UniProtKB/TrEMBL annotation:
Gene Ontology CC terms: SCF ubiquitin ligase complex
Superkingdom of the organism of origin: Eukaryota
InterPro entries in UniProt: F-box-like_dom_sf, LRR_dom_sf
Record PANTHER family: F-BOX DOMAIN-CONTAINING PROTEIN, PARTNER OF PAIRED, ISOFORM B-RELATED
BP GO annotations: SCF-dependent proteasomal ubiquitin-dependent protein catabolic process
Region called Disordered, residue ranges: 1-24
Name of the protein described by the UniProt record: F-box domain-containing protein
Amino acid sequence: MSFREKMPTSPKSPLRRRRSSWTGSWLNHPTTSFKEVVSAVIQSQSPRSTSKPQTSDFDFNIDFDFSKVDRTLSLPDSLLLRILQKLPDSQNNNNDVSLVCKRWLSLQGRRLRTLKLLDYDFLLSEKLTSRFPKLTSIDLSNACMNPNPNPNPPRNSNILLCHKSTSFHVSSDSSNWEENLLPSEVIDRGLRVLGRGSCDLLKLVVTNATELGLLGLAEHCSDLQELELRKCNDNILRGIAACESLRVLRLVGSVEGLYTSSVSDIGLTILAQGCKGLVKLELSGCEGSFDGIKAIGQCCEVLEELTICDHRMDDGGWIAALSYFGSLKRLRVLSCRKIDSSPGPEKMLRSCPLESLELVRSCLNDKEGMRALFKVCDGVKKVRIQDCWGLDDDSFSLAKAFRKVRFVSLEGCSVLTTGGLESVILHWEELESMRVVSCKNIKDCEISPALSSLFSLLKELTWRPDTRSHLSSKLEGAGIGKRGGKFFKKR
C-alpha cells in the first residue's frame, strides 16, 4: 500500500491543510489588488483564523487593526500643539516629535521659537520662514560668513576661527579674514525675505547689514524688541528709527583680527534720536566720546543698563557724560584696555543714579580714569571686579569714594593685598555681603582684628582668596601627597 493511499481524506485533517500562498490567492483572483491579497494571507495565517471554519470562497472581510490607526488625526492642530507643549524639556529639545509624521513635522516647526542659522541660502530660498513660521529669535551671525570666499575652499582646512558665538574655517594662507563675510547686498536681501515671513520676530543677530536691509526688516517686523548689529557703522544706524519697539540694542563695531568698522559720535547721536525707548544698550568696539554718550543720556530717558566693551574712545570724556543719564542703574565695563584717557575737568564729574558697577577683564592701572569713574559712581550699592589687571592697593583705595556699598565681589585680583582691601572696606559702613575669590596676595594670616570683627557682622561672606592654600588646609592630616614624596626620594 502506497503512502498516498494511507493519507487521511478527512477535510479536517491537519495533514490535508495547506498554508495559504499569496501567489496562489493572487492567481485565483486576478481582480484582487496586491494589498488585499497580502492582508488576506496574513489574516489566514494568524492563530485567530484557525478557529474559524474554512470557506470555499476567498474572504476579504478581515478584522480592522485599530492599533495602526492614527488617533491624532481627529484632533485639531491647536489642540495637538497644546498637548505637545506639555512634553518635558528633555523631549522638546530633540527632534523625536518631528520624526513621527509630516503633520507632526509641520507642528514641530510651528512650535520652534529660537534658531541659530548656519546656511544663509536656507533663508534666501524662503525655506526658513515656511519651515519655521513662528520664530521669535534668530541668530544669523554664523550664516553671514561665506564658507567659500576663495577658489580653494577653506572648509577643508583644519583651522577654525572662533570669536564668541561666531566660528568659521579659514585657510592657512589667509591674511584678510574680513573677506569671509557675505556681501552686504546678500545680507540685505535675506533680511527682506525674513521680514516678509516673520512678523512675530522679537530678537535678531546679524552681521554686515546696511540701512536698506534694516528698513526692509522693520517694515514688516514692527514688534522687534532686541537687535544685535555686528560690523556696525554710522550709516546703518540711520535706519534704526524704523524699529519703533526696540528695547535692547547691541552694537559691535570693530573686532580686532576679524573685521573693522566705525561707530562715531555721529552714529551715536543718530541712535539716540531714533531709539528713545531703549532699556539696555551695549557698545562694543565703538568709537565716540563725550558728545555721543551725552546724546544717548539726554534722549534715552528710560535707559537702565549701559555696557561699554573694548571701546575705542581715544578722545575720552565718556565718563563725564554719565551724569546725563537720569535712569541708569547698571554700568558694565568689559575687556577695556583703558578706562578713560581724558576724563575732563573736576566740575564735569557729577554723580549719576547708578546702583551697580561691574569691571570685568579690563586694565585698571589708569589712575585718572579710575578716579573719575569712582567719583561719578559714588552712589553704587553693588561693586563687582573680576579678572582685571592693574588693580593694586593705590587704585583700589580710590573706591573709598563709594558711600553706599552693600555688596562687593573681588575675583582674580592678584595684585591687591590684605592691607589694601582692609583700608577700603572699613570705610563702607553699609556693607552687608562680600565675596573674595582667587586673590592670591590676600592672606588669611594677615587679617587684623578690625577686619575679623567686620566679617562677623556681615550677612554673607565668601572667602576663598587663595584656592591652593584653601585646598591644602582641607587635606591636612589626610596623608594625601606624601607617599609620592617617599617613592621619588633620592637614594
